[in-house]
Amino acid sequence: MFSQLKNIDTAFKHIRLFSYLLIAACVGISCFAVWKSYQSSDNYKNHIYILANGKALDAFAADRKDNIPVEIRDHVRMFHHYFFTLDPDDKQIQAGITRALYMADESAKKAYDDLKEAGYYNNLVSGNISQTISVDSVQVDVNQYPFFFKCYATEKLVRSTSTVTRSLVTQGFLRNVSRSDNNPHGFLIEKWETLENKDLSTVNK
């Protein structure tokens, strides 16, 4: 009799232990499933779908701090493109300069005013001169704020009789501003100055 009761008690303990283990396993699986669902949801939110030429392309969204050097370089390139890519057309010059001035402070406006006062843009129009710029590299220091940059570029002035190639080096700082259609990267160039703008070669036609 006592032996049977002892066996029943032992079996009950085993069943109770098994039940505890089963409950713990169920709780663990449930917690894991909830965690994976939240992780999957976060990953889904970080994906952007871009429609290009009728096709949906999957892009991954990253924190802005990871892209700051890339965005700064593109901002600097676009600013120099708008400021220095000039055709012998008053409206084109004004349109490009206007877009460039949205991306920089009064230091760029002062440089524009100085060139205008010196008759630079009138000479381009009257001489039918086209000017293009190719940014070779942009050095960026993101360890300080405002962010420092130095831009190395090559200019070409195309005349009817010759093509002049110039070396251009500029530098400045960038601070954060709100993004907009006119300033998609959300930076503003400050204390912009030209360190070098000299002729490299002249090719006669």
What does this structure look like?
The protein has 205 residues and is an alpha+beta fold. The protein has two domains: 47 residues; 141 residues, Nuclear Transport Factor 2, Chain: A, CATH 3.10.450. It has five helices and six strands; from the N terminus they run αββααααββββ. A four-stranded antiparallel beta sheet has the order 3-4-5-6, with helices on one face. The protein has a two-stranded antiparallel sheet with strand order 1-2. Strand 3 and strand 4 form a beta hairpin. The relative contact order is 0.11.
Write a compact overview of the structure shown.
The chain is 47% helix and 34% strand. The chain is α+β, with helices and mostly antiparallel strands. The longest helix has 44 residues, at 2-45.
